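Fig. S4 source data, part A: sequence.
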Amino acid sequence: MSFSKEGAIVSIASGLAGGAIAIIRLSGKNCFEIASNFLRPAETLRAIKPNLTCLLKACDGDGRLIDRVIAVAYASPRSFTGENMLEIFCHASPYITRKIINLAVRHSARQALPGEFSLRAFENGKMDLSQAEALNDLILAESAREHAAAIRQTEGSLGKKIASFKKNLLDLLSELEVRIDDSYEETEGLNRDAFLKKTAEIKKELKKLSESFYNGRYIKDGIRISITGAPNSGKSSLLNALLGYDRAIVSPVPGTTRDTVEEKLELNGFKAIFTDTAGINAETSDLLEKEGIKRTAEAIKKADIVLLLQDGSRAKSRSDELAEKAVSENAGKNCEILRLYAKSDLPSKRKAAENFLRVSALTGQGLEKLKSSILKKEKTQLDSATDEIITSVRHFKCLEETHKNLEAAEKTLKGKGRSHELTAENLRLALSSLSDLVGETTTEELLKNIFSRFCVGK
């Protein structure tokens, strides 16, 4: 994949999922001239005023009508890409959209690569790199919290915070550099304690922001919840009850679920990813069931929360014990385990236990309490509508690198030599990491990696 800054690019911008109306985006210095070859009357298009709609006819090379369209022209730099840009609204027939795009390509436009419109917007200063990434997150958002975190970053909240960090670091760097230039003042002119107090304050704020990633990743990637237990303990029924519809097959025959079944559900604005797993059977000799049990172990390893089910209407079995063992052996150290007695609508064969919650998929008993328990973890208490939250691994690494270089700067200033030159160099490295985060310094390879993840037309 190779992005080129030259020439006009064209693509459908409204996705390929169907609908009544499609949007075709054409961007580049000569985009109006290109469109005048197939939008009629050409004189109307050439005279179109920016940001106003215009009714036109899209015609093929022989003048045959393809569709009546609405066009909106945007003049550089007041457009999404910062270039001259035209958006064509046509009927969403795949034939019509393909025909119009092919006509644009025939007259020198190039089919846009995924994310290429956003890349041009970034390169033309319409947004920083963190905003561009957040734009893709916004398009892919599946929950209220994910949307809230993305919308804040598209508005530039993270970029403003990074700019504040950079200003404070530049002020500190200036204090050092003026003393490096006037060497006779090097050891006496700098108030070392005041300087270190400022670096400590910046480090504290950096750490707070970077550590929000441990919560932010749940907002973006979802909370992974594995439903685990012995065969026929009510796992599939519980999944269906939580979802509100039948997603997993339910049968009185043990071992019905032989593979993992995954489904998403929004809980209080958070994306929860439930995995119904194969029951852990102490007596199985079935090869397919054994493979399902292996996959159950993998699901437990990936889980943030495990719902460990036991059938409350039956006495504890050997399979229940093996399920407990599988969870203890495979769950990560930060994984939370919620123990449940299922089938609470039936007469209970279990003594009440503080660490077990009774639930019924049939009556709904305990389901709301279960949902509350899932969201009790501190990681879900962040208010993504008001707090700045890092959801990107790349941003997290840039902030961690900045923090590391600040610590190195403090160490050189506290050290025996108290070297201003080494301290200044570490501050420059810290500034460089922050510049990388917002895209002020980037490599072509990094930009390709980021923008290639975008959908076509964005």
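Fig. S4 source data, part B ends here. The mean pLDDT is 87.
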